[in-house]
Amino acid sequence: MAFPVPDIPAQRARMEGAALAMRELDSGREVSYRQLDEQTGKAAAVLASLGVQAGDRVAILCRNRIDFFVFLFACARVAAILVPLDWRMPASESRLLVDDCDAGWLICGEEDRECARQVAGTKRRIIDLDDAGPQGYPALSSNVTPVAGTQRNAEDTWYLLYTSGTTGRPKAVIQTFGMAIANYVNISQGMGLRSSDTTLCFLPLFHSAGINLVTLPVLILGGRVLLTPGFDAARTLSLLEAGELDAFFAVPAAYQALSLEPGFDTAELSKTRSWGCGGAAMPDALLNEYASHGAVVLNGMGMTETGPTVFLMDPQRAAEKIGSVGRPQVLAEVRLVGPDGQDVAPGEAGELWFSGPGVTPGYYNNPEATAAAFADGGWLRSGDQARCDADGYYTIVGRMKDMYISGGENVYPAEVEHHLCEHPDILEAAVIGIPDSKWGEVGCAFLLPRPGHEIPPHEALQAYLRERVAPYKVPKAWQIVEDYPRTAAGKIQKHLLNPPN
Fold first, then answer.
1. Within a domain: 61
2. Are 222 and 182 in contact (CB under 8 A)?
3. Are 285 and 422 in contact (CB under 8 A)?
4. What is the pLDDT of residues 3-45, one digit of tens each?
């Protein structure tokens, strides 16, 4: 759908220029909306002076800081496309991505300067945010005429996000201006965001959650964003207890870490009004633990390809529908589809298909992957299995690729993992299917113990599960881990788990 999208910093500067927009908690640096608009204009002017034109790709490699959003908005002003890079990646991997999208410029901070040089080589111009020399960004931006804000078409590409690679080589997911607006509507309604809200941006900005859950929506609303370069459980708990945050969005791994922080047992969390969780399923036991501290955490679900918000639980029925990701938000359409491409019967599991203005038009410069991702009618195949109850609430069963067949029966690991995580000695669990000569496939459970606890013997765990699930769902192999390979959103990368011999 084509419609004009206004320049966010320019509009907010006009409406409430003196209001605080962003503050970096480590450095103390802060900007009002008027200053954010001015700095965006200067950054756009620098990009233009370096030859960046409409449609050009500009990569960025930095931690959470105000400058990331300055350049996100600056790329919009010159119609360039920002490409955030994962600072955890080695230079060799990042180089593959910038080659894939043919980025000609690379913005970096001092923490990632050396990696940026290796990625850039001799082909790309580096824009160093912290270089005090004549070629550094401070000097380049000191004497330019700011570029004024301008509207963009909703269908235009704003930035690219490379998929986290849980199932293979990353692909560049196109993020349009219209997708940003759709996500703003969906998550703002779902979490009840307000223009007076303060939120914390700690999730990495090379991931959709870091940008969109809920930093960009809060900036669109005119609220305040506090930034930290990464997750600090002690600091976060202090902010929450002090009532410094009105809206808080995190992934289950962060919620888990907070719950293990000294002082959590006596923490009162009711001063924070709105809580959201996504990226992976949050265990029911953990949801209940937060509820006992006055925090009703709303489970949600979406994809990088959906901008990301599709589902979010509503607080009124969160306790009653624990484990559900809620209902589709207002600008999202959903189907549950069987292998035959037809909608499944009520109550049955099916693959989630998505449609609506929050859905990506495809993968950048990858028509084959785009064609494979979409069904007839423009429906995006998610690869996730879900069920819908009689009230319209959805529960994620698991990834289709995670499902395995044991003795002719479908096994969805998410169900087994759910029950394992209820065990008092288990902090987290991941189950995969492995080959078996008798049953075809059987389960293999990778278990992370709670601090100070030991995982019980396998026989005891099998007996525990047999009281809760059918025998064919009980894993036959077990392995204790110190942690899991994870994506930036905290998802376990199951394809990197190595079962015992």
1. yes
2. no
3. yes
4. 999 999 999 999 999 999 999 999 999 999 999 999 999 999 9
